[in-house]
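We were asked to recover a plausible sequence for a given structure. The inputs and outputs are reproduced exactly as logged, with field labels preserved.

PROBLEM: sequence recovery
POSITIONS: 426
GIVEN STRUCTURE:
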């Protein structure tokens, strides 16, 4: 029996998916036993040439996918909140399984969409929404369903990882690295969502929701981007045995969950330190399974289409079985730990006057805030000097209080950098 597929979007991901479904139809049928037939493709601009896609199945009415009785499964690969949200919800309510790659939509409306899928007894699959071609959603929701996951750390934005590794390796500045990322197609012409950390925050919300069953809206996630990192930070990182990465961090704590996105100094022997360029990776620590690392291409039409196609095949099998699908994902609102209470460590680079008593004033600022110093290194002499400091673990609010005091000290010319250090130091 042929299974009719409706696809909203024929761009980077939709174009690759369509090519696979149309050109590799027979191969997929031999491998899976499924006859997957593309019945409708919705796009925005009907005047664009779309070689290989039969003209009579192309429409600019996305909701036609819901009303067309020939369409059994709906694939949403157009992106954005609307009309994608309306399409996904209406499809689920019409009893049609939905596959989407849209992290923005899932992060913004996950609980509502999961509930709609559960009510309809149909699958809502979104393997491509985090980590592109990396299998991570299915491992979290199925393989690790019985595991107590304690921490999830992710390099989930290829653009920023490319920029950070090329700044470290090639000694180039932020703007130059960004321009190279744009030339290579890793960064959008407007890179704001990537470099501000917003894209990673949407993915962090999804990862935390699936790992802990607790939903944290992206606007409650403390988010910092990479725009303030300088070449001097990479030099210090190297000397201290660290690399710099933008991490999505989700942790289970006794008082709730903590979810945040910010640059970190990561020890060179951490599994995520080896992740370079546009590659993505998600590190999971579970109480029984231990450490897991999922790594691979986090974006790109072909890798992302592989994840979408896997979901299409899964949904088609469930559709053929004819049974109601038990909800794979249950999320509830939960306690989100105030970021000020989360234990962090900091790397700081200060420009200070080179005069007697400087160090004791700085040490007092930390001591008064209840933060102890793990490392102090002075670089340069003359009228001014650079101090590199690494603190021990203390609540984020205490670290910030110490830095605020430092900024007010006459001997501190500038706090040139403040980057958190990722470690599980007690
Ligand atoms: N690109 C990646 O590497 C990647 C990786 C992981 C996840 N994703 C996710 O996959 C989704 C698609 O990304 P993409 O890069 O493939 O986007 P894209 O290249 O910009 O393609 C978007 C497609 O959707 C169509 N579209 C947009 N708005 C529409 C509307 N209102 N009605 C009908 N069609 C509409 C566009 O039509 P026209 O062709 O007429 O413009 C285009 O075909 C997004 O949610 C994205 O976050 C992408």
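RECOVERED SEQUENCE:
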């Amino acid at each position: 029996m042929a299974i009719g597929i409706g696809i909203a979007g024929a761009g980077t991901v939709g174009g690759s998916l369509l090519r696979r479904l149309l050109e590799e139809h027979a191969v997929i049928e031999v491998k899976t036993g499924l006859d997957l037939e593309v019945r409708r493709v919705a796009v925005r601009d009907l005047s664009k040439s779309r070689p290989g896609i039969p003209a009579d199945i192309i429409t600019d009415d996305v909701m036609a996918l819901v009303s067309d009785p020939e369409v059994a499964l709906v694939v949403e690969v157009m992106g954005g909140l609307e009309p994608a949200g309306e399409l996904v919800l209406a499809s689920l309510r019409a009893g049609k399984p939905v596959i989407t790659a849209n992290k923005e939509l899932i992060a913004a409306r996950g609980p509502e969409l999961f509930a709609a899928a559960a009510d309809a007894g149909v699958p809502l699959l979104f393997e491509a929404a985090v980590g592109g071609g990396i299998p991570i959603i299915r491992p979290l929701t199925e393989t690790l369903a019985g595991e107590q996951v304690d921490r999830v750390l992710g390099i989930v934005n290829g653009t920023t990882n490319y920029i950070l590794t090329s700044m470290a390796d090639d000694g180039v500045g932020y703007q130059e690295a960004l321009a190279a990322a744009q030339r290579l197609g890793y960064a959008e012409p407007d890179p704001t969502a990537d470099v501000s950390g917003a894209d990673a925050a949407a993915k962090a919300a999804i990862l935390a929701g699936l790992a802990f069953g607790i939903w944290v809206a992206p606007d409650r996630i403390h988010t910092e981007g990479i725009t303030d990192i300088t070449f001097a930070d990479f030099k210090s990182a190297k000397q201290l045995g660290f690399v710099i990465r933008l991490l999505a961090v989700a942790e289970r704590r006794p008082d709730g969950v903590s979810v945040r996105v910010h640059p970190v100094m990561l020890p060179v022997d951490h599994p995520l330190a080896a992740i370079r360029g546009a590659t993505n990776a998600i590190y999971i620590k579970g109480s029984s399974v231990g450490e897991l690392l999922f790594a691979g291409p986090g974006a790109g039409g072909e890798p992302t289409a592989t994840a979408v196609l896997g979901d299409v095949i899964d949904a088609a099998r469930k559709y053929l079985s004819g049974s109601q699908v038990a909800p794979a994902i249950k999320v509830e609102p939960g306690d989100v730990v105030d970021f000020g209470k989360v234990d962090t460590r900091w790397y700081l680079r200060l420009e200070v006057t080179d005069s007697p008593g400087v160090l004791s004033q700085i040490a007092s600022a930390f001591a008064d805030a209840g933060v102890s110093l793990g490392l102090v290194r002075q670089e340069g002499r003359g009228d001014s000097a650079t101090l590199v400091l690494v603190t021990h673990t203390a609540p984020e609010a205490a670290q910030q209080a110490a830095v605020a005091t430092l900024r007010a000290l006459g001997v501190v010319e500038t706090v040139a950098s403040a980057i958190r250090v990722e470690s599980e130091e007690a």
